[in-house]
Amino acid sequence: MTEEDVNAYLQDVNNSGASIDTNKDISDTFQNTDILVSDRSSVIPMFFMTGKPIIYCPIESEYGYLFQMILPGLYIANNWEDMNNILDNLTGGNDRLKEVRESIIHEYFSSNMNASKKIVDTIYNDYYEE
Question: For residue 35, which of 52, 50, 20 has the smallest C-alpha distance?
Answer without folding.
Answer: 52
